[in-house]
Amino acid sequence: MFRRRWSGLPTDPMFADTLKELGYFINEDDEIRSLEDPDNYFKYFTYKNERWNERLRFSFNQAVSKTIHARLDTLGLVSLPLPLGTPTTSPHVPIRTSPSLASSSRVVVLFGDASQEFGVLSHRVIGGRGGITKGSVLSLVDALKTQRSSATDPTPPGLVLANPGELWWWPEGGCGLNPTARHRVPMSSAVHLGRYHDPESNEIEGNRSVKEHVRCVFESVAMGDLVRKGVKLDVIAVGDVADEVEEYLDDDEVWGEVSGMMGSLVVLGGFYNSANFKCEGFAKFMKERARAYIIHHEPLDTPLAGPSGNPGVIGFTSFGCPVYSAGEADVVEMLLVEAQPAILKWIQEVALEGEAYKNEVFEIFGEKPEDVDTPWGPRGSDTDAEQGEVKDMQGTAADGDVQGDGGDFNPRSVGGDAPEIKGERGEPKASIAKDSPNIKDVAELEMGVERLKVDN
């Protein structure tokens, strides 16, 4: 009897973890290009086998992450493990903070997209046109250096970079991975379906989910001993993480502790509905000191809706705060990349005005898009839509028009007389009975007449 051994399965491919060994380099424009052809960017479909392409992408992303964090080290950002005090050899989530965090009067807290590696804003920018700095948090770090903490404090604000993406601990690699990368790690073979999730080995205490990570960042860092008393927080949240941030703050007990610290909140691509607000204090804060950016065709920073939303905008606008266009962004991961100048300009304005700042009061209401209803339910359900269909089928035929019968052509005239079919010389060929069901019978009848002529 034949049997297949485990050793007979194809070996999972392995690739280098540096850009040079993978065949790429960083040019003078900070873009990653191919060594073989400098005009080309990263190529995903290098192999015909998808598993090979996935493993190559994993190694490429790891090399990109090393480059980003090497630059963050150069800029002086400190790496902290969560939970605080956890050895780096044990399951933990690394975050980054500015060296002046403890003395900063204003701190910007960034919660990036949960689907990205730590420090990455958009891989389509890093691996394509734009480059590493523009597509990562490096652009944000550089921009914040030019800002003032407040009208009375000229020093740049502090910075906390949360890490909601890498919450799955990879024991062999000694690091956390995002939901996509966890299935691209080396497997026992190239045909294994995925990596089993073991709660004991792969979960990180206090950071098992995005919800827990948001709570951990606020309670351990933003509201802990790492910042000074009276600090003001400017929070920027992207995508699904923005919903978790709002849900955490939308609590009477939590808001009672953080309300005096919150300076502003920027929501990028979230969907937390203001109709679900539970805390009045948080709802007031959203209306007065928060702002949302969404994907829209209007130019960057164009007002789209007030706190009440705008049914005339195709997309979600019920944020409970003013809503603006993110400009050229067409996907969530591009929101912070494209809208960053407008966002930083606004939070600087809020910081300079201090407690006196309040959002401009405006409401925008466009025409609500017309809903197109289609018939729903089984035939015979006697719905309004179905009744409308029946009326359309019946129609109102004018003299000489052919009436419809629900899809089958019936060539009966309006008066009920059967039309006469004549030949080329005007001789009668056949007539159609009044009860003829459809044109198919007419065609068959004509074919029979033609055959009869040929036979004769």
TrEMBL record:
Q: Where is the composition biased (Basic and acidic residues)?
A: 419-428
Q: Which GO annotations describe the biological process of this protein?
A: regulatory ncRNA-mediated heterochromatin formation
> Any idea where the Arb2 domain is?
15-300
The region called Disordered is annotated at 368-438
A single GO cellular-component term from the record reads: nucleus
An MF annotation (GO) of this entry: siRNA binding
InterPro entries reported in the protein's UniProt record: Arb2, Arb2_dom
Q: In this record, what's one Pfam family?
A: Arb2
> What protein does this entry describe?
Arb2 domain-containing protein
Q: Could you tell me which species this protein originates from?
A: Trichocladium antarcticum
